[in-house]
Design goal:
The protein folds into two domains: 15-54; 61-155, no CATH class. The chain has four helices and three strands, in the order H-H-E-H-H-E-E. It has helices at 20-56, 64-79, 100-103, 115-128; strands at 84-91, 134-139, 149-155. It is elongated, with a radius of gyration of 26 Å. It starts with 19 loop residues before the first helix and ends with a strand.
């Protein structure tokens, strides 16, 4: 006499999944839940980006402590054999043309900068350029084929 199968021995506890219609229904519910999760994640990312842009629109006080931290970072980069360092990564939304001039290396690209990137460019031009430092801006990513984040690099 065969033993009656135990509930734990069954492959699928919910008999409604053991049909084509049941599996399609299950897959539809999973896809809907994943789409909702994706939408929530995109909404959170958009809110974080908006907050970051608002923060990067505010100038920072460039006091001696900030200058000392920058000098330490330069020394650490040089100690590790590098000849350039990323100073800032920012969304292309902080350019008046969303990064187009930087991406295409157009003359006057620096005029498209706003907020903290513009402030740091001005500091470089006034204080670092006369000391032989170079400055480079580069589009770092292209989400959906358009300029995304931009990197600001100082080189020596």
């Amino acid at each position: 006499m065969a033993d009656k199968p135990q509930k734990s021995d069954r492959m699928v506890e919910d008999d409604s999944l053991f049909s084509a219609d049941g599996l399609r229904n299950y897959m539809g519910k999973r896809a809907a839940a994943e789409a909702l999760d994706d939408a929530k994640r995109e909404e959170a990312q958009a809110a974080a980006k908006k907050a970051m842009i608002a923060d990067l629109m505010k100038p920072v006080e460039v006091d001696q402590a900030r200058r000392d931290r920058f000098a330490r970072r330069l020394k650490e980069a040089a100690d590790s054999g590098r000849s350039e360092m990323m100073v800032l990564r920012f969304p292309s939304d902080l350019c008046s043309d969303q990064g187009r001039a930087i991406n295409n290396r157009l003359a006057g690209w620096e005029n498209s900068l706003v907020g903290r990137p513009k402030q740091l460019y001005d500091i470089w031009e006034k204080e670092l350029k006369p000391k032989g430092f170079k400055l480079r801006f580069e589009v770092l990513e292209y989400p959906k084929g358009i300029p995304g984040d931009i990197g600001m690099f100082v080189a020596w």
